[in-house]
Amino acid sequence: MMRIFREVSSLVGAMGRVPGSKNNAKKKKVYKKAVKTWCRPRDLDQVQDDMEKEVRNGKKLEFEVDDDLPGLGQYYCTPCARHFDTQGTLDGHVSTKQHKRRLKEAKQERYTQDIADLGAGKTKEILPPAHPK
User: What is the pLDDT of residues 42-69, one digit of tens each?
Assistant: First the structure.
């Protein structure tokens, strides 16, 4: 009986804590939010703006040489908003399912405030003038 008590008390440790309960980082909301937003991709409306700029200018987006980006920031996929190391990697990415899905999403009609108002039941009524001339 005394032997079992010693084993259990050694497992519990100092101050009655269970082993592994010191780091409750997984339970902290601030930690979860930081991890969730750390590597967040660009939003769809931002990607649509970039694609519109490419169509307007007639050429792909160009970035300055940046040592922090993969491939010095020269190989960029606009619909996916990702940088790649080499042109070969970018070409391989273009044929993937992830790229095709993102491209399809980017080609959809933009979601505007007018569409949101219609969905909420708010309509803009255009009335004829009360006293026509």
Answer: 888 889 989 999 999 988 888 888 888 8
Round to whole Å and give the CA distance between 36 and 23.
19
Query: Which residue's entry shows tokens 């769809």?
Result: 44
Q: How far is CA 66 from the centre of its chain?
A: 22
Residues 6+ apart with CB under 8 A from 63: 69, 73, 74, 76
* Token couple for 74: 């020269």
Domain ranges in the chain are 73-110
